[in-house]
Amino acid sequence: MIITARTALYAVLGDPVSHSRSPALHNAWLNAAGRDAIYFALPIAEAGADAAFAALSAYGLKGANVTVPHKARAARVAMRRDAGVEALAAANVLTWEEGGLSAYNTDAPGLLAALDEGAPGWRGGARSALVLGAGGAGRAAAWALAGAGLAVTIANRTLERAEAAAALAPGMRATPWARLEAAFAAADLIVNTTTLGMAGAPDFDWPLAAAPAHAIVMDAVYTPRETALLRAARARGLVAVDGVGMLLHQAALSYEIWFGERPDLALGRAALERGV
């Protein structure tokens, strides 16, 4: 495509973002639709991030996805927030509109859609869920699963953060990281939203041997696509759902917010498959 002064700018904001597959995904959709727009990765360090967010609109940014560590900041700076952002105090989608900045959370519905696709029937079979991590993605996952009727336990290396996340909705509780084995044993559904296992991040010896034989395991990490957690789950014969589905579905909802139409999921998945 030819980039001009009229080309609309969209980005993923975070630190790190060099691993992100969002540019490949969104640019595939933009090109297929013939839109005069481009999507790119924009690293924003924690130091100075408030000033950076305040300056973004001046550079003509139309919309953005937000990832670690800025989801709470994105919620704070927005003038308008959807119900998910209000409940979670975390946003992963921003749009600059006339009258100010709007924030949305597509992580929660994106996670449910990924489970529907990757583990059909989970809604009827899972009654309890363990969410690993209490950051923006963890809070969204826990809130979404509690809303779907599951009893949710949140485990985080800092217990206070898990307790704060558990207070977001009825039916959620926190457990100490030191009690992971017992938490795995009690869960029908296990969802990792931490960066453990991500390319460039530390791995972890998950107590998957304790999980029930019927457990479903999902990892929000998608680089690498098969994490140590998912390898261990498959080795035990458990249903394993990788992070590509959540990335795809939350991104499709982002695109729909920005452009008012649903993108081609098959096209998006093909773009992701080429790089993960």
Distance between the termini: 24 Å
Q: Provide a count of the helices.
A: 12
Rg, Cα atoms, Å = 18 Å
Mean pLDDT, to the nearest integer, reads 94
Structure classification: alpha/beta
Query: How much of the residues is beta strand, in percent?
Result: 15-25%
Shape: globular
Quantity of strands, as a count: 12
Quaternary state, please? single chain
Kindly identify the CATH topology of the largest domain: Rossmann fold
**Strands of the biggest beta sheet: in what spatial order?**
2-1-3-5-6-4
> Into how many domains do the coordinates divide?
2
How would you characterize the largest beta sheet? 6 strands, mixed
Relevant CATH superfamily of the largest domain: NAD(P)-binding Rossmann-like Domain
Q: Percentage of helical residues? A: 25-40%
Secondary-structure element sequence? Answer: EHEHEHEHEEHHEHEHEHEEHEHH
CATH class designation of the largest domain: Alpha Beta
Q: In the CATH hierarchy, what is the architecture of the largest domain at level 2?
A: 3-Layer(aba) Sandwich
Poorly predicted spans = none
